[in-house]
UniProtKB/TrEMBL annotation:
This is Beta-ketoacyl-[acyl-carrier-protein] synthase III. It is an enzyme of class 2 (transferase). InterPro entries: ACP_syn_III_C, ACP_syn_III_N, FabH, Thiolase-like. Keywords: Acyltransferase, Cytoplasm, Fatty acid biosynthesis, Fatty acid metabolism, Lipid biosynthesis, Lipid metabolism, Multifunctional enzyme, Transferase. It comes from Amycolatopsis tolypomycina. The lineage of its organism: Bacteria, Bacillati, Actinomycetota, Actinomycetes, Pseudonocardiales. Its EC number is 2.3.1.180.
Length: 333
């Protein structure tokens, strides 16, 4: 029988630098009221000068390994779109710093869907026998690519890292990742982008135009797509697992906007109370969003062993994806 990837460890890490809505209102033309009512966010955390995505990834990864009661993983997959450097990938150095020399290590870039894509990649490594255990880390430092003058993106995004350990096990076990459903629509890539800094701009020989090195997002169409794609994704995962949508106990969506969570709940006909939410405390942490929500979901008593849980992400690419599991016994670190 093909081995399943079983969730057995969970770790979270946030940088020290808290930025409250009041802090933003002191710098930009915005208010605490606008940010809370339009996004549900109260605060977010950002890295200090010199601190990078890999630093957050190491801390979250260390905690996930501790939570799993192990010091070893056969592979490290880092989901990020803010790597420490454009080249090489961030994962090999993270693996090395975690005391995992010689293991397979690479990055997955799917922006806010990165963690779900990395989970699917790790499940594939385990199913093929290429790895018996995988450390999957979602880590991003969007504060390093935001336009300091952009009140919308600065209100939304925060930095952070979340990690899980997956081990080879049986498909019927609690914690076994199943129902994976992934998708993309590259015809709409311009809705979420950093226009400059890649080969498209660099090969022209022209320097980037002012502001093109910053992250840019067209909020309204992205909002509509996020609601549609994550709703359809949750339905696809439930169907693949043979679950009825109304029997899903907890939904853990990418924390992009509290209004997106409410809209997906309404569209699916699942009570909003079944949606795990920590966006008020951390903002939109991109690839770290889903694993940080898992950690807070357990800490808040929202995620409990035996529940049928569906995870879903949506982000730049455009990309989306989802997975399901019966929540296992574990203690996050
Ligand atoms: O994580 C990956 C996927 N990302 C998402 O899913 C994000 C999806 N989009 C969103 O969450 C929302 O579209 C935003 C939070 C980004 C924006 O909220 P919105 O309700 O769609 O606002 P809007 O862009 O339509 O702007 C409404 C107004 C505008 O002013 P005018 O043109 O009506 O005068 C904006 O300039 O709100 C203004 N605005 C702000 N006002 C105060 C935009 N940002 C701010 C701000 N403070 N921070």
């Amino acid at each position: 029988m093909t081995a399943a990837a079983v969730l057995c460890g969970l770790g979270s890490w946030l940088p020290d630098g808290e930025v409250t809505n009041a802090d933003l209102a002191a710098q930009l033309d915005t208010t605490d009221d606008w940010i809370r009512t339009r996004t549900g966010i109260r605060t977010r955390y950002v890295v200090s000068p010199g601190e990078a995505t890999g630093d957050l990834a190491v801390e979250a990864g260390r905690r996930a390994l501790k939570s799993a009661g192990t010091e070893h993983a056969d592979a490290v997959v880092v989901a990020t779109s803010t790597p420490d450097r454009p080249c090489p990938a961030t994962a090999p150095e993270v693996a090395s710093r975690l005391g995992l020399p010689d293991v397979a290590a690479f990055d997955v870039a799917a922006v806010c869907t990165g963690f779900v894509y990395a989970l699917a990649t790790a499940a594939g490594l385990i199913a093929t026998g290429a790895a018996g255990s995988v450390l999957v880390i979602g880590a991003d430092t969007f504060s390093t690519i935001l336009d300091p003058a952009d009140r919308t993106t600065r209100a939304i995004f925060g930095d952070g890292a979340g990690a899980v350990v997956l081990r080879a096990g049986e498909p019927g076990e609690a914690g076994a990742i199943g129902g994976l459903a992934l998708g993309s629509d590259g015809s709409r890539s311009e809705l979420i982008e950093v226009p400059a800094g890649g080969s498209r701009q660099r090969s022209t020989g022209r320097p980037a135009a002012p502001g093109e090195e910053y992250f840019a997002m067209q909020g309204r169409p992205v909002f509509a797509e996020a609601v549609r794609r994550m709703s359809e994704s949750v339905e696809a995962t439930a169907a693949r697992l043979g679950w009825r949508v109304e029997d899903v106990d907890r939904v853990v969506l990418h924390q992009a906007n509290a209004r997106i969570l409410a809209a997906v709940a309404a569209r699916l006909g699942i009570p909003a109370e079944r949606f795990v939410a920590n966006i008020d405390r951390v903002g939109n942490t991109v690839a770290a969003s889903v694993p940080l929500a898992l950690g807070d979901g357990v800490a808040d008593g929202e995620l409990r062993p035996g529940q049928q849980v569906v995870l879903a992400g949506f982000g730049g690419g455009l990309t989306w994806g989802s997975a399901g599991l019966v929540w296992p016994e574990l203690t996050p670190a």
